[in-house]
Amino acid sequence: MLPEYTIAVEINFVDTSLQEDLRRFFKNLSLPVSVPHSNISISQINITTVCNSAGTNLSHCFCEPDYEWSDEICKAYPVCHNTTTAVGKSCNCIAQLPAQGTFCQLQSEDIPSVLITNMSVRLDIPFKNDLWDSSSALFKQYKHDLETAFIEGYSTLPGFINATVTGFRPGSIMVGYEVTSARQIPLENAHPKIAALLNHQYNLAASTFATEIFGKVNISISPEHVFEGDTVKITCTTEDTSRKVSWSYNVIMSDRFTLTEEIKMGSKIATLTITDIKLNEADNFTCNFKDDSEKLPSIYKGEVNVVVSQIKLVPSENVSIICDGTDIKELSCCTDRDIQLFSINWRPNGAINISGSTNSMNNCTIYLLKASESQCPADKSGTSTDYTCELNTTYGARANRIIKVTFFRVAKITLSSSKDIVSEGDAFFLTCQSDVSNYDTIVWKIQNGRTIKEIGSMWYTTTKSSTDATSVLTVPRANQDWTGIYTCNFSQSFLSSFGNITIKVIPLLQPQEIIRDPIETVVSCPETRRLECCTHRMENYIVYFFSHDHYIRAEKRRINNLNCYYSIQSFTDIHCNSEGYALQMHCMFMNEINQNVTSPAIVLRFIPAKNVVCNSSDIGVGANEAQIIKPCLNLHGTSNSVRGNIIYRCDHTKWIVHRNNCLAGPINDLLNSAESLASSPDSQEKLPSFLKKMKETTEQTQAEINKSAANLNAVLETLTLVSTIPVEANEENMGNFGSTVEAIITSPTETWKYVQNGTSQLLGSVEQFLESLQPINQSIPSIIQKSLQIKGTVLGESNSSIYNSSFAFSQSAGLMGSVLIEGAYFDTEKSITIVSVAYSTLERIIPQYRKEMINSLVMSTVINPQINEDFQIKMAFGKREKSTNNPQCVFWNFSLAEEGDWDDTGCETKDDGDSVICSCNHTTSFAMLMSPDEETSLDELTYITYIGLSLSIVSLIICLGIELVVWKSVTKTRIAYMRHVCILNIAVSLLSADICFIVVAATHDQNYAVEGNLCIVATFFVHYFYLCVFFWMLALGLMLFYHLVFLLHSASKTIMKTLGFCLGYICPLIIAAITIASTLPYSSYTRKKSCFLNWEESKAVLALVIPAMIVVAINAIVTVVVIAKISRRSIGEKSINEEKSSLYRIAKSIGVLTPLLGLTWGFGLATVVPGSPKIFHMLFTIFNAFQGLFILLGGTLWDKKVREAIRNKYSWCRWSSQHSKSTSQGMSAPALSINSTVSRSLNNLFGKTGKYQVSSTESSTILSESTSKAHTTLT
């Protein structure tokens, strides 16, 4: 007998439909079968195990009937859902492929078994979501009710053990349950009873009971690895083509689910296709084939668990590539799966699209990329390109990631200079140009030796275009700090490009560094004098002294710590021949590149040796009251020298110090440091320490600042120099600057008076400092001082667009103020810095050029950057003095007049009781001016002045017209002739003076700025014409006095006219010329804010007041003499009528003489007395403003001869009388008589007439004529 062997054969195939074909083949095979060409025969073929694999974790291995998995296998592998399990530990299905060579075994006969039948039935009621949850009350209720009915129904069948509900699924409600029995039992016999038990409540469909059989359906899935986005096909195959197919799954079906059926080779194939599967569609998918051929339908099930994965991609970081052809960068995308499962695609998208090379390594795709300069246009440098790496599956899933690649082209830098070699004090600029316009930062540096400094951003500006970028470094005044190698560095992210250039700064003095000795001096003739120009600098220069075109090479010597260049000049008597002649000498310093600087002038004045009164070897020589200006050398007995000068004045035989303008040593050093700092490349870095030093210095030298205008002015210059340097807005920096300002505004008012343009300089420097502040952390700290406060804020995207700051000074009468800016358009994409400063005591130092006074805080607001759109700034000012009125909102206009003044342009005022609301459309220094109550009458005087002068001008024009018309009729006698000559010239002079005065006054009241030279001219003519008025009044008074006192003496008209014109025009011209010549060189001819003679500095107004008062005094004496003459009694007693007539003549004389002799100007003496009654101001204004009218009335129209002449000139009988008169006069008129109308008018104006025939009776009756002179003159 041949040996028997059992051989296990494993057959693998992809097409699951071959399973049924293979079964049919084995079923129809006739056994035994002999193997050809061998002694082997196959006696029996049994199929024991069928495994359907849909992936490693999606496999099922079923045992054929009479076979089972051993208990070891059932323990080692998960058991399939709804499988038949034997009593014990054996099973007929596992959900995973076992180890190779492991198959199902024959069932053991000695182990009792039970039959578990999987069943399902449908409830025709809607499915509820709670049935998914086995812990829900609804699930438990359904499970309990159904299991109770099932057990009650099946318990009538022999061999029934138990019924258990396993779950619910949609499809109305499909109930899955298991029936456990000892053997095969007819379950269908119990279904009617079960249906009856459940139909009422659960609407059970009795026809839907069916057994569920697993393992008889071949199910497969494609692809094996499912990724989101794949198109998935689940295929089920059964050998019975009559079975009806359905699908079960828990996910919601969409239009992407496609069901198909086909019969192929005797098998029924059902396919579920899911297009673009989603992650949430991972589920257990079951295909159901229902067989209705038996009494109890059977459902053959194939189940597969579809696991949907996401393609996980991890890209490399973004990279930057330098376009030089050598910088190679690696881009990568990695996944947690085998990279071979995917198709790989890299694609660029951007302004620069450069392709690279691709390869794979491990689970990553690698993309190598590099770029040449030609592939990166200059205008595209710094731009980024998106490189997309994409992984695709064959079935439609895809994933991509983007890696940003930034391409940088190395910029080509061109650095050029306007000059390679410059002298100190010269301006130069460097231009750094890059062909790449896209940059992050630009940094300028300068290297001098081993020292490298970064140049502050205030020195350069940078602009960009579409093709390039240009940075221009501008140095307005070079010093030694600017010598070195300049580097311009353009930075693009990590890439820097730079250019170098060398600039050499040659030493050259600045004018303020040249110390002249002397500055201004007196030289006696003949004399030899040493002139010197010194400096602290140690460089060597070629120095010349020159005057006009005469140059003299200077010698050099060392004096203490100074290098001095001197020249010994000889002066002879020739220099003293020109009285008042001043020689100006300059010294010129020339450096090694032949560039030069010229010092201010050394002024030499010459006097004869005999006129020398003061003589000192240290100071010099001079006449009495002469002045010499010397530099501040050997200060306080030391070898130190500082800026400034000392003015010496010759007082009899001794030189005395008239004014000491030398700076204190610490303040001199501070100013020098400030000048150096302002021109330093790293001024921004050094500024904080300088501000600290400035505060300490001003505190230590407070006494010197209070006493000296020169020291105060030096501190102001220091503030101005440093205010333009950008500085961090921290509390220390702002506090140090504020403390310095606080120190100088508390200086005495008297000191501030001698500081030229001090107010504008102070306000301007503070505003500039506030504008230079650079906020830290988007904030501005508040600074609180005794008389100064600074507050500010930064408006931006996260902050409010309304600015509101308030100020309160408890120590200054509780002064308060606030600033509000709202409704303005602020660009919230940029930070807007707004800073306000308030001063409580600034009214002490601001010069007052108007009657209104500052009655509030002075507040200034700075907005950076400036707002171009229209906006309103509202300020509330608390009143210092409540008793004032007429509030006026004003701002400090720096361009008004010479030193600035208050201006109300663009401001509206609203009085709100104790405060005033100001609304303005610009920002600067604001204040509120108010008029004191006691000065309200001054406005009335102003109106009276304008009205009076206007009437006077009209009256004087009428007066001149009348005089020209009646001239020939009223000037027949010598006395009358001279009287009318005086009146005519008084009228001309007063008319000219009034016109000039009213124009100047109107210009001043309207705050119109008058150009300096025009103001000087206007002041000169006002002065001159008013002097002419007074001196012609004096001429009239002296003439009257002469004819009253010297009765028997008679001067000719020519002599009288000559004396009159000399007195009336030449004397005023001399006084006016001397006044302007002596004050104009010292800028003290006119007042600061008005076109009138100066009082505060030169007392030039006395050149008008003193002559006027002398004339008034003399004419007053004349008037007394006239009255005495009129009232003198004749021999014997006068009758009452004669007394009345005498009183009438006296009153008439006073009325006529008062305006003609200028007596009304005497009221001016009363007005200058402090606290004088207002009546004197009123009378002075009325009498003198209306003086022209009084002259017309009293001097012209009151004259009886003038009235008769006018009457005769224009009466009806004028023609006949005039005809006869002309006939008689024509016979006696000489040949040289002036007949031309125009010539006669012009000659009459200057007192010229034709030749008159004088009869012999004039000389014989001199006494009677003299007696009648007073009458003739007064009428």
From TrEMBL:
Residues 779-936 form the GAIN-B domain. GO terms for biological process: adenylate cyclase-activating G protein-coupled receptor signaling pathway; cell surface receptor signaling pathway. Residues 111-233 form the SEA domain. GO terms for cellular component: plasma membrane. Residues 941-1199 form the G-protein coupled receptors family 2 profile domain. Residues 192-297, 315-406, 411-502 form the Ig-like domain. GO terms for molecular function: G protein-coupled receptor activity. It is found in: Cell membrane. The chain crosses the membrane at residues 943-970, 982-1004, 1024-1047, 1059-1080, 1100-1124, 1150-1169, 1175-1198. Gene3D superfamilies: 2.60.220.50, Immunoglobulins, Rhodopsin 7-helix transmembrane proteins. It is a multi-pass membrane protein. InterPro entries: ADGRF3/5_N, Adhesion_GPCR, GAIN_B, GAIN_dom_sf, GPCR_2-like_7TM, GPCR_2_Ig-hepta-like_rcpt, GPCR_2_secretin-like, GPS. PROSITE patterns: G_PROTEIN_RECEP_F2_4, GAIN_B, IG_LIKE, SEA. Keywords: Cell membrane, Disulfide bond, Glycoprotein, Membrane, Receptor, Signal, Transmembrane, Transmembrane helix. Its main location: membrane. PANTHER family: ADHESION G PROTEIN-COUPLED RECEPTOR F5, IG-LIKE DOMAIN-CONTAINING PROTEIN. Belongs to the G-protein coupled receptor 2 family. Adhesion G-protein coupled receptor (ADGR) subfamily. This is Adhesion G protein-coupled receptor F5.
